[in-house]
Amino acid sequence: MNDLSALIEKCETLNGFIDKAAKPVVAILGSFNSGKSTLVNRLLGMEISPVGIIPTTSCLICFDYGISFRASLSGTSKKAVFFEPAHLHSYLEREKPAGGRLNIQVPSPLLKKCLLLDTPGIDSLNKNSCELAEKAAREADKIIYLFHQRGIEDFNQLFLSRLAKLWQSKNLGDISFWLNCNLGVSDGTSLAATAAALRKIFFSLVRLNTINTLDADNIETLRLFLELELIRETLRQATANLKKIDLEIPARIKKTAGIKDEALFLSEIWSVYEISRAVLAAGQVIHSIPVFSKELTKQIESMNSSNLGGKNMNPSGRSFRPRTADIRANRQALLDLIRQLLDDAAVTDYLDRPTLERLYSQIAQERFTIVVSGGFSTGKSTFINALLKENLLPAGDGPTTAAVTTVAGGSRKRAVIYTPLQSVISIIERVGDEAVLDSGAAAALARIVMTGDSGISKLEAYVDGQFVPADRFKIAGMLREAKELFAAGAFARAAGDRAVPEVFKRLPWKRLARKKLLQKVRLTFSSPGSRGFDLEKPDLLQSFWNTLGADSAFMIEKVEIEHPSDFLKLAVLVDTPGLDWIHRRHYEKTARSILQGDAYLFFLNGKHILNKMDRDSYQDLFCTRQVCTDEAYVKKSGGLFYVINFADTLTALQRETVYNFVTRALAGTENKVRSGDHKPRVFLISALQGLTGAESGMSTLLKSLEQTILTYRGRNFYLVKANQLYASLDAAALAIDSLCLEEQLTAGAKKSLREAWEILRASKRKLKDIRNSIFDAGRF
């Protein structure tokens, strides 16, 4: 790209033909920790903008050119000026000024051509972060928007919808979107999903590429992209002046030819020559831009290829096994004692056999439930795969868990997908005073109802406040009518079929009230129930993954998996869809699953720690809904665990910072569900390293998790069962005592009763030992 660098230098010839009163403003927007400040620092070639693993930018930071460093803070109650970067960083760390504007001057060549505006993360916990980001967007001439590697989610969608309205009077080509692949090579799923979502938001194709802000070559490519964009801006401003000057040159030459004074003639003709040469040079720059643009496009495509690829990590290393030897031994001792009593003919006539058989079954089948929740692409499914040492659950950068999935112990590897009797797909939702067409649901509905083998026995359309029967073709026609009403202009049509809308705008809800429009469809399935998959066979495993596709959220009730993992002898794992996925159909099912859990793992992304949606989802599920009803148990055990994933991508200092940030942020919130002074249980892990056998922090988490479950929940369960068994033995002993008082008993009968009584007494002594052992169990 040396030629492009030379073009950038030649572009200086255009500067004489434009108004230099104002430089273009380039705003860097996106979620916190998406790499905005890192990008700014690397573009400037110096560490100026505050960078950290937790939200660090709390105000607008405007970078301009200056011969030396100078920073001034304004717009807040405190004003300050700094002449050393270290003094500025110390102040920002200490005071954390919220709002306002920080103007910084540094001697960076890029700042001779533009102003750079660094912004707070739109989803940080600072209440005014969105307002500051929107303010920056209004000021900006160009926007560079960064996504995390997992791509777009609800909060970004909401913000970008507002940005689209703000940008209506500007050129959409002045916004570029970048997926930051700083967690390693992306599998590409989040890139495709984000591109589709952006088109629906902006009603047009947008520029979306990948970048790794930790890679110097990637930064250089983006710098060249920005330089070329600034050249285009300069060209836009210079073109009119160039045409005017070019048209004036012949007249100036003619006028110069009439000058009699030799010195004046030479001076004037030299001036015309210089202007002509500058115009020619500017023309060369202008004509060179398309060539260099193609060259840069190839470099960006090459960068995309290097950042995209598969994540086929093969499981390796030793399996994770429960360390709870004492509890398992006591559980087995209880089962052995009950079995002995049931098989002993000497006592079987005096025992309540149905009660003992029921106790045996309950103890044998008892598994404790661990619910795994959190945002999508926080590593929940990879964590479960790591526990199983098997790639059974689909995992990727984008949303992959379509329905609540239960993973339990079994003798073989198999999965069952359950289809409900009925399912309702809503295509139009009310948001405030506006109606929104859910394009994802509409597309899924079109595929489902028009597929011949979809297994649908009955279709009902919800129109004008009630469900009415409808056939496939009527549903298709009504769906098309709804799409046409919401269609966002000609550019909303699909390529190759100009008649099919793909992108939709919002409409006033009142407008829909006057129309009998399809709002939702109820599907009744002809064969509700289950479909099994033998996961031992690769082709059926792939079929299982395919069945959990894009439309699965609308057609699957639940998923159950069996696996012969040692860990599943202790607990049942419940994997839940991402709480911040755009399709939130299973949110309520996730909430119900959490209510039934014995322990809860709330996953957070270590590179995007505790964003606003994480906080809101946590408060809704674990505070508002009062998940932990047994307050004494929660207080003692800490049944809620916060799991910070991707710890392998953090430095030691970053891990400490993240841990402290989460602990402080959640300590106050937990008081809503916990009484007393309790420190949140926070663990840093790498689920991917756990899958591939490296030390990942998972062992520490699992040890604490097992101890928590078995010390309190497990111990209580087994003590209750032991007490029930003791009561049954006591009742049998009392019955024998009563029989012994009967006078007509023979000597043989009395001997049999004494033998039975001795067996019961020995069993009770053994049971007391087991109860004592259970009470002390859980100490590792």
Automatic annotation (TrEMBL):
Keywords tagged on the record: GTP-binding, Hydrolase, Membrane, Nucleotide-binding
Protein known as: GTPase Der
Ranges where the Dynamin N-terminal domain occurs: 26-150, 370-617
Phylogenetic placement of the source organism: Bacteria, Bacillati, Bacillota, Clostridia, Eubacteriales
Domain of life per record: Bacteria
GO molecular function terms noted in the UniProt entry: GTP binding; GTPase activity
GO cellular component: membrane
Coiled coil (residue ranges): none
Record has Disulfide bond as a keyword: no
Annotated organism of origin: Pelotomaculum propionicicum
Short name of any one Pfam family annotated for the protein: Dynamin_N
Protein's cellular compartments: Membrane
